[in-house]
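Input/output pair, single chain:
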Amino acid sequence: MYGRRIHEAYNSLGDGTISFVGVLRTHSGQYRLVYEDYVNLAPYDGYIELLDGPNKGYSYKVEILDHVDYGSGPEFIISDGSPTLYAPNEYGRLVCQWREVRSGR
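Output:
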């Protein structure tokens, strides 16, 4: 997976918005992954769109937790977003490394 994650802070506490646009490659094809939401409202609402194959163009609503650390390093968790009293139905869990780039504004 690769893409661009932008955190736009409104104040010194880090409150603001998170947005991501990227491509996820799996054995079943390539997907566009897009989400945007307020920092304090995780999991973030987004969607995955299939970019190739027989179902090209189909999109699915997903929820994203994008900087969760359970001890093995930051993880990126993609789930179906269905309301549940149990653990979410996960589509994928990836260990991630964010490279911070400052815009110089």
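The chain has a mean pLDDT of 84. The radius of gyration is 14 Å.
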